[in-house]
Amino acid sequence: MTDNSIRRSQRLNQITHAPHEQLDEAVKANAPFETLASYSRFLSAQYLFQEELKTLYTHPQLIELIADLPDRCRAEQAKADLLDLQAAIPDPVAGAVIGPSLAEALGWLFVSEGSKLGAAFLIKRAVALNLSETFGARHLGEPAGGRAEGWKRFIRIIDDLPFNAEQEREIDRGAVAAFERFNVLLQHAYATASEAEPA
Ligand code: HEM
């Protein structure tokens, strides 16, 4: 069930439109830019997501396709952000992606890379909490070489790969799973952090 008349990245945009809307709403419902406490929980979800994807960002086969892939990972920035805010480094949460196929991995990376576009809006709000791309909100900062440029290069690579029908399904599956996973991590971050706080 693959539509050959549109680019692969356009199809990914379409099939993740609803999950993106839902996640956007879930993020906003927690008002992460109203208090540092709420922001820290959001950051903790971002950190865990990036940390889980580190194995993909550093995978030799994927680096063969996307040479600057390791530099694109934001696990270190998110960790530095947590340290800036003296927030705890969260323990891993069961259910991280393990051993996806190449195409599935690219679906996950599509979501992680795409989230840098939304980050352009988020970092502007972070300023109200005295956060910036050098303190506390490094992981939302502009990537070296520019957001739009980095995204376009990534998309061009994804769109030009020769995939069979099974791989088309796998990349779709990976992208949808990535949104589901971020949602799990978000819910976890808000649930556990509120328990840890004094009443
Ligand atoms: C973990 C994954 C993601 C998260 C948590 C996320 C979160 C968000 C949030 C909260 C906003 C709203 C920003 C605002 O209005 O202040 C947003 C906007 C945006 N996101 Fe995402 N996003 C993710 C993935 C993606 C992906 C995969 C793409 C592209 C394919 C994308 C593209 C955009 C764009 C272009 C905007 C700007 C305005 C809009 O069109 O709604 N995001 N994102």
TrEMBL record:
Listed name of the protein: Heme oxygenase
Alphabetized InterPro entries for the sequence: Haem_Oase-like (IPR016053), Haem_Oase-like_multi-hlx (IPR016084)
Taxonomy, superkingdom: Bacteria
Name of one Pfam family that matches: Heme_oxygenase
Organism taxonomic ancestry: Bacteria, Pseudomonadati, Pseudomonadota, Gammaproteobacteria, Pseudomonadales
Gene Ontology BP terms: heme oxidation
Gene Ontology MF annotations: heme oxygenase (decyclizing) activity
